[in-house]
Amino acid sequence: MRQRVVMFLVGVGLVASAIVPLSAQTAAKPAAAPGSKAAYTAPRTGDGQPDLQGVWDFRTVTPMERPAEFKDKPFLTEREVAEYEKKINAQRNVDENRDKTVRRQVNGTDETQDVASAYNQFWWDRGTQVIGTRRTSLVIDPPDGKIPELTAEAKKSRDERAAVAERPAWGPEDRSVGERCILGFNAGPPINTGGYNQNLQIVQSKDNVVLLNEMVHTARIVPLDGRAHLTFPQWTGSSVGHWEGNTLVVETQGFYAQTSFQNSSPSMHVVERFTRVAPNQLVYQYTVSDTTTWTKPFTVEIPMLKSDLPIYEYACHEGNYGMFGLLSGARAVEKQVDAAKGGSN
Q1: What is the pLDDT of residue 191?
Q2: Hey, which of 135, 220, 243, 272 would disulfide with 211, CB 3.0 to 4.6 Å?
Q3: Domain limits of the chain?
Q4: φ, ψ for residue 210, nearest 5 deg
């Protein structure tokens, strides 16, 4: 069993320290029956609530949307699971070897210098297995396993953001919320697989639930006392929760500007459902509604596996140094372009 990997990521000024639990990845897969949720009764907290507490690992090789090769196949056979996992992991080995192609002389000795990618493959921790239900996508509705089409307004906004990303940044607002260390790319809401730091810690009290995502150390305090949503926007929205039987339901709205989720707009509404279905498994399901962005709502389901290891702080320092360097570099590029055109600057 591998232990956590302590990561010091130095990319475009990013210095991050993260320790990621890997033990849950090798735990036994849960049964593939969706109806198994009703067969298990979760333990209770001292307040009588279903006990969801602990660290939950949500890594997987199952993609968000159904691949073309499984177009009309919502579930895989056991043989297909083994073949798919082998193919994905083999490709990662190819990618890792490709990243290690630049060598340099250090003290008279050749040394590999991983500079072919911003993050070489060593730092990624995407998971190695298909989810236990053997679904071909994390999207469970619509039935085709695809996120619905963007609206015309969203397509225009997407293209405008892409154009901004291609030119030298005019200011920090031009860069993504991830680059600015405001939100992590998988921290949510909604929470999604991808990259690394794919761990969620849940802490409960009678009146609140804390959802701590390892990525950028994002912590949401979700009140359970029936209060209304906040009347002003937040980067991670305003979350309120309640219990429906053994399921914790969290509703989030009131997002501020960009979020970390795809092309979503401030009008996005997210309903998350957390259900413990086995001693070592939590099923996380969410439904997204955003009429500004998508033509219809969609639902994603991600099984999470229990880890016996703690979460350590992920410290994102992009705003301290990286943004200064990025904007300074952008101004230098502009001067070079002006000089080449015979400009005076």
Answers
A1: 94
A2: 220
A3: 6-340
A4: -105, 125
